[in-house]
Fold Glycerate kinase.
Amino acid sequence: MTQITSSPAPSPRIVIAPDAFKGTARAADAAHWLGEGIRSIIKDAEITLVPMADGGEGTSELFRGERVTLPTTDAAGRLTEATYTYDEDTTTAYIDIAAASGLPAVADAPVPVSGDTYGTGVLIADAQSRGATRIVLGLGGSATVDGGTGILVALGAQPVDAAGYNLKPGGGDLERLADIDTATVNIPAGSVDWLLLADALVPATGRRGAAHVFGPQKGATPEDVETLDRGLAHLCDVTGVDPATPGYGAAGAVAVGITWLSRTLHGTDGHVRVVPGARLVAQMHGLDERIAGASLVVTGEGRFDDQSPEGKVVSTVLDLAAAAGTTAAVAAGTIDHELPDDVIGVELEALDDTREQLTRAGAEIAVRYLRTSTIQG
């Protein structure tokens, strides 16, 4: 009589690839704490942590290089410090617009109309002075809707009105723009190659543009939104930039000003590229291959809403999981947008301790995954 023995089931391979939970957890911490929760239920899980970003806060620190900190200004013009990454071997600087011009720094007094990106321009100029020939600029988490004009001012290109007077900072004065004075432009800084990482592939203007989609979360009133949208449309007219270009609405339409500057100095648009930030970070990590070999992929962010499918981390990871046929799960503070039917969705519990929130979410995901895999298998 032949005895039949069954081999033990292989340990599940789990990839954890969340974005940062803004204001509460860095992507690396979120991944670690979700993993703790999963391992509390699935003891033998083979877990791979892949902290993600989409061009927003925390993107630059995912790249190799020296971390550089220097004084600059925030979106309201107040003195602050900001940090970016400089890779001397590739002469590439990785800069988050959120580092100097981010929303958290002005949360006490938002500046949607008057806030500008001058502080980010300071970081760009510093990077070029260290030898950078390429700027990878993360376009997520900004407090501004200035079309990148603050960066232009920091690099010596001054927007002026019909009388030749300097415009006020921010997007609220852009309707008065007549020209951009390049008499003192920083040619070396403006002539670098630009790779802009868009966290949302929205256009510069219109109902799905920078002002309408992101203005309210930056503190803009309905009247402010209309003013900003008209200003960006006028900026595009003056600079000759197509406002419908996908991704040009990210970070308050920063790509508009940068494209104009690069075109002015080079004569072509060939030195500026706008790409989905989450896709680039995923490629850098080889995430598609990791997910293809996994039993479960877990991602997450602070809020999963109608902006999430516009190219942010969660939608990117879910797309990769769907292509690979891998079970996927999402942990979020709130889930306000419908997830695909086969995706596990877990909202964080209302607790003061972020680590506890995420470990509990990880444990809940593990329980639901085991229940689903048992039913299917």
Q: What stands out?
A: The first strand starts at residue 13 and ends at 16.
